[in-house]
Amino acid sequence: MKNALLVIDIQNDYFPGGAFTLENAENACKGAVDAIEQAKRDGWMVVGVQHLNPPEAPAFVPDTEGMKIHPAIVAALGDAPVVLKHQADSFFETNLEQILRDAGITDIYLTGMMTQHCVTHTALSPQAHGMNVHIIAKGCAAPAQALSDLALQGLSARCSLA
Hints:
This protein has a single domain (3-155), classed as Isochorismatase-like (Rossmann fold, 3-Layer(aba) Sandwich). It has helices spanning 25-41, 71-77, 96-102, 115-123, 145-155, and strands at residues 3-8, 45-51, 82-85, 107-112, 132-135, 160-161. Helix content is 31%, strand content 18%. By secondary structure, it is α/β, with parallel strands linked by helices. Strands 3-2-1-4-5-6 form a six-stranded parallel beta sheet, sandwiched between helices. The protein contains five helices and six strands; from the N terminus they run E-H-E-H-E-H-E-H-E-H-E. It is globular and about 40 Å long. The protein starts with a strand and ends with a strand.
């Protein structure tokens, strides 16, 4: 078994003052930092994922503070690679699958924002086929905690929750 942690879209627009504030964003960020630190201690590959929208979008607009990865996550990621994406699925039209397959990854652990959208689409991506998918819930957030919980419950049919 060879593991990788994917840290999905923990970006400034999801925090107070951002374009799309999520409930429990700060707690999820702390949970994600803990997951990154543990993954590094365990010798896992860690990959950050950053969403970028077109200029007319309501969030993650190029060259704004909101599109930047949260500073606590940047610090924790260190020199880990960051994959830039434009769709909910972190694999879609990115080099993420190639990075993971080249490293011989068998198990991916996902954490990030939003649970019901980008985390779910990445977990269920056809390009994750053949890898065991796990969700680290303490690092996930959505517009409402109930929505995050519901998404995690649904994901538990195909993924393990950690």
